[in-house]
Amino acid sequence: MPHDHLLDVSDLTIQYNIEGNLVPVVDRVSFYIDQGEIIGLVGESGCGKTQIALSQARLLPKAAFISQSSINDVHSAMIFQDPLNALNPVLKVGTQILEGIKVKVNRNKGEVVRLLNAVGIDKPEKRYYQYPHEFSGGMRQRVLIAIALARDPDLLIADEPTTALDVTIQAQIIDLLKELNDKQGVSILFISHDLSLVKSFAQRTMVMYAGRIVESAPTDVLFSSPKHPYTKALIQLSRMNKNNKGEFPSIPGVVPPPLEYPAGCRFHPRCPSAIQECAEKEPDFVLKGEHSWACPIT
Fold first, then answer.
1. Is the C-alpha dihedral spanning 112, 117, 120, 124 positive or negative?
2. Residue 221: how many CB atoms within 10 A of its CB?
3. For residues 201 and 194, what is the distance between their CA atoms, to the nearest angstrom?
4. Which of 64, 215, 290, 295 could cross-link to 207 by cystine, CB 3.0-4.6 Å?
5. Do residues 13 and 66 touch, judged by C-beta distance below 8 A?
6. Quick check: 157 and 76 in contact, CB under 8 A?
7. What is the DSSP letter of 54?
8. Which tens digit of pLDDT belongs to each residue from 101-134?
9. Does 242 score more than 80 pLDDT?
């Protein structure tokens, strides 16, 4: 049966053996990505965002137990957040990109040079022979993007690709991803904790908390009319400045580890609006057009 979307994920669950029990770090997650679409995935550290990314790039460790009721096979590639660790320090950059394309017919050094040029690296013929330590942080991230593009993916999975970069270089990387999306039609799953970046970049945004997606909407709708208390808190915090101690405000409490996921809504111990029902029953999703959220009190 043909799929309507480029990527269609239904009831994705990723489990690990923790203290003798199979524990879900991603729990019954469903989402889709259309051809040429840019999707944002946001949430605090420990929510399961990277696990979703690794599952779609087929890079989960062997210790992971993965199940899902349906998923279509899409050609994807992943851009990691730390290019210095993702690149092999003892191999020339050109060699590392070539590894991704050497299985294709008629692809050689000239194709690598073309890719380096396509991601905005100057003097690509010279850069081909250089090592990662000879590149700046922004240029190393561009190399990772070139490696991802080497296999002509339909979907780029960008996991915090601008975290280690300064604001100016961040903007350059985002502009490059936008250009790839515009000119090549590649879809992008953009994972970030920076809501301002997601707001300016993604067409739709999903919010994740404690292994579950709790809200999803077109980005402009999500930021103008958030429904889930967790989404509201994230957006409110993103608009606040440091206090007089030089600290950014935060949501009280922490994301619980998988072994300590509470019953009912997993956000209810941190939620200022929680009622008794929130602690007893897992919330159903409310669906209004393209906007969905899991909260009974909004």
1. positive
2. 17
3. 11
4. 215
5. yes
6. yes
7. H
8. 755 555 678 889 999 999 999 999 999 999 999 9
9. no
- 183 Ramachandran zone, left/alpha/beta (phi>0; psi -120 to 50): alpha
CA distances 184 to 37, 73, 127, Å, are 12, 20, 24
Q: Which position has the token pair 């958030």?
A: 226
Domains in the chain, CATH or no CATH each: 7-75+153-293 (3.40.50.300)
**Mean pLDDT confidence for 58-68:** 91
Q: What share of the chain has pLDDT > 90, as a percent? A: 74
Length of the chain: 298
- Cα 270 from Cα 264, distance rounded (Å): 13
Question: Which amino acid is located at 135 in the chain?
Answer: F
Is 74's pLDDT higher than 90? Answer: no
Helix or strand holding residue 127 (H, E): helix 124-127
- Quote the CA–CA distance of 94 and 167 in Å, as a whole number: 27
Backbone angles phi, psi at 21, to 5 degrees: -120, 145
Q: Which two tokens stand for residue 200?
A: 């300016």
210 conformational bin, left if phi > 0, alpha if psi -120 to 50, beta if neither: left
